[in-house]
Design goal:
Blueprint lengths: L4 E9 L4 H13 L4 E6 L3 E3 L10 E10 L3 H14 L14 E7 L4 E2 L4 E2 L8 H10 L12 H11 L5 E3 L8
Antiparallel strand pairs: 1-4, 1-5, 2-4, 3-4, 3-8, 6-7
Amino acid sequence: MATRFRVHLSLGSNLGDRTANLARAVSGLAALPDTKVSAVSRVWETAPWGVADQPVFHNLAVEIGTALGPLELLNAVKGLETRLGRGPGFRWGPRLVDVDVVLWESLILDTPALSLPHPRFRERAFVLWPLAEIAPGAVDPVTGRTVAELADAMRAAAAPETAQPLAPLAWNA
């Protein structure tokens, strides 16, 4: 496979065996055509965002190399979510698994289906802190700031209980 694009994803789960759900999702990403998982952060336990009255999340960040295009990858990860058991729900509600495309190298994209970089990733500790573990030098093409700079700024402003690192994820390639 000729890997062409370096892409960063955010994964989350707050239903069922959260860590096992994430492991299945990472294995599913590794099984996508023309895609290789190159880095996985530790699992982080994080407070819900948007709707507070729900179980806490387990989140992590994944770096992949892929020859898929942005909309192809989006369709692939949405199909993966469905195969893993994610059903219909409400925005920011509980979910078995959620996979978001966060950064796609220096690409800025705004379509009805996909916006890159993810429009709210700069506001979310559950995205930034795990992402800073695996891609501190990745640059937000909108602000020109690195993920490490964005994460440090958020750490300075956020309550420490917002996100806590747990352990590395065991998953099958």
